Amino acid sequence: MENRNIILFLCGHFEDDLVVSLGREVEKAFHLPVCLEECKRDITGYYNPVRRQYDADGLMKMVSDMSPGAALKTMGLFRVDLFIPILTYIFGQAKLNGESGIVSLYRLRNELYGLGANQDLLLERFSKVVIHEFGHAFGLIHCHNPVCIMRSSTYVEDIDQKEIHFCRSCRAILDDCLKKYTT
Amino acid sequence: MAENISILIVDDEESVRDSLYSWFIDDGYDVECAENAKKALSMLDGREFDIVLADIKMPGMDGMEMHRRIKTLSREPIFIIMTAFASVDTAVQALKNGAFDYVTKPFDPDDLSHLIRNAAAQVALKNENQSLKEKITSLDDVEDIIGESAPLKSLLGDIESIAQSSSSVIITGESGTGKELVARAIHSNSPRKYFPMISVHCGALTESLLESELFGHEKGAFTGATLNRKGRFEMADGGTIFLDEIATISPKMQIELLRVLESKSFVRVGGNKEITSDFRVICATNRDLKSMVKNGTFREDLFYRLNVLNIRIPPLRERKEDIPLLVHYFIKKYCTSMSRDAIPVEPAALNHLMEFDFPGNVRELENMIERAIVVGNGKEIRLKDLPMGKDVISNSIESLDELEKKHIAKILDKYSWNISRSAQALNIDRATLYNKIRKYDLKQEA
Questions:
Q1: Could you confirm whether A38 is annotated as catalytic?
Q2: What's the gap between Cα B78 and its chain centre?
Q3: Could you tell me if B404 and B390 lie in one domain?
Q4: Given this model, what pLDDT does residue A133 score?
């Protein structure tokens, strides 16, 4: 039995109440202690001037390198637009059964789509994407249940459609996986 | 669905392979990667993939050449091209060569999801189509033609060779020999097997009805024609039309039929639009068409048009050795349909069946077995369950004594061994009947 924590690396400036609430949602979802840590690294080297976006694969490697061995899973939180070579953008990514992942707030803000700011909605979207990516890190694949948090989302509207919870079958797989980490 | 779909990613850029791999793994697909076309082809040699997602520009063999080679595989996967903006023209060419779709790098995540979902749906359709085709083939197989006799083996050989051609066929044979079954076997073994076989029983229709059946009609063509209707020739497009009892069609219909066979086009009754249809004609008759041609009741030109290939089905009396196999086949068929276990046949009953001439051929035998299963004791088929056992005189050469013995036994059974009534029916006195019973050693069944 191990009892390790989840680390959220804050890569950029985030409002305190947003990240604290996010941490609580993650704790609630995985029943594991969550730590918030600030990341002081310079990420400008990951900027791609042609795409005017940040290289998600490079940032993920950076987050992975920062992870202390004691951490169970780590997630880098960013405010910048992320890309991977084959896709025009991503909200976040994590390796299946991997140790770390990254998520960006950039495309989750209403303002990007010409709508008024909505902090509650932003927290909900951010929490859903972070929990979804942690779900992959804990071995869950995409789910066909339309309201399950593990359903694949390619637009923010897709994120809004699903709930912040795992469906019964994803929850069962996750609980089985979490057993070895919780006392 | 995703867990059953396998994807092969072919791209020389490692970052592209890794990103796609992670993306599809998250969706639950079975994914493998290859860094060049050569490796991909060798992987395809070792196992089957449902979808291949390949970059069009790769060092060495490019995506187009790889697609050309993949097309020669026995089970061709769905091929999707990945391309940069600069090579869209090439991608369009790939589509013309049969690629399923193309995506331009970098892709919108939603486009990629849709593309793979559509390809997966296509894979499911292909698999379903394949299994249905196999089902259809097994249903219409020649397995329904039962027998191991030399005449039947020769018939099966004829069916096999005739099936490969598209020429017209005339099947001749006595009533009940299975002409439609042979027509179906020819169709189901021909390249037309995935298209319909349409049967028309010419003898059952009047001239005007047959015309409308074969060519179809337009709304208002005649009283009662309230809707447009496709004809059988139109329905048989790509497949086979089976014209049973062809000898019964009228001289007018013979001319119409000849015209259609020559041009493969016709006009619906009451219509004016020429319709073309690609069909193969198989006809059947139990009459001698040649003699009908001689006496002028069947057109000679139509006969030669139809009689390109000819199959004669031997009557059952010419292949008696097939009777036991047929009997067991029909027992199994009817017992299964009645949810019963297959039952045996009493040796005496089988002997009688072997001796019988079957003027109604296999159909008559089938009806006899069906009846015997229905009226019998459910444990075995006995001689008395067969109609021929009662009503039909055996064709075997028997002595008068043997016939007398059988007849007396039958009468005694009929009157439950009541000697007085049996003697009365036989028109002999009781003492004579006792003597005959003793002479022939007849015993009442327990």
A1: no
A2: 31
A3: no
A4: 96
Examine the pLDDT at B348 and tell me if it is beyond 70.
yes
B265 with B333, same domain? no
Higher-pLDDT residue of B52, B134: B52
* End-of-domain residue from the set B297, B312, B327: B312
Please tell me what DSSP assigns to residue A120. H
| Confidence bin at A70 (pLDDT 50/70/90) | confident
- In which domain, by residue range, is B358 found? 316-397
Burial of A15 (0-12, 13-18, 19+ CB in 10 A): exposed
Among B25, B27, B106, the residue with its CB nearest the CB of A86 is B106
Domain boundary among B70, B103, B136: B136
8 A C-beta contact, residue A134 and residue A99: no
User: Domain with A42 in it: what CATH number?
Assistant: 3.40.390.10
Q: Which of A25, A99, A133, A163 is catalytic?
A: A133
Cross-chain residue pair B13–A85, CB shorter than 8 Å: yes
Contacts of B20 in chain A (CB under 8 A): 86
Mean residue pLDDT across chain B: 85
Cα–Cα distance, A127 to A26 (Å, whole number): 7
In chain A, residues with a C-beta closer than 8 Å to the C-beta of B112 are 86-87
Residues of B in CB contact (< 8 Å) with A are: 2, 13, 15-16, 18-20, 22-23, 25-28, 82, 105-110, 112-113
**What is the spatial distance between Cα B10 and Cα B24, in angstroms, rounded to a whole number?**
14
In this prediction, the answer to ipTM > 0.95 reads: no
Total domains, chain B = 4
Q: Number of folded domains in chain A?
A: 1
Cβ contacts of B109 on chain A, cutoff 8 Å: 87-90, 154
> Number of CB pairs < 8 Å for A and B?
58
**Angstroms from A152 CA to nearest CA on chain B:** 8
Residue A183 lies in a domain: no
A136·B26 Cβ contact <8 A: yes
pTM for the whole structure = 0.52
**B110 → closest Cβ in A93, A95, A155:** A155
Three-state secondary-structure class, residue B243 = strand
Q: What is the pLDDT of residues A78-99, one digit of tens each?
A: 999 999 988 899 999 998 999 9
Q: Which residues of B7-30 are buried (b: 16+ CB within 10 A; e: fewer)?
A: bbbbbeeeebbbbbbbbbbbbbbe
DSSP code, position B381: B
SS3 state at A153? coil
How far is A97 from chain B, CA to nearest CA, in Å? Answer: 10
Tell me: do B337 and B189 sit in the same domain.
Answer: no
Does the distance separating the beta carbons of B26 and A85 come in below 8 Å? no
Nearest to B22 among A88, A89, A93 (CB): A93
Instruction: Name the pLDDT band for A165 (thresholds 50, 70, 90).
Output: very high
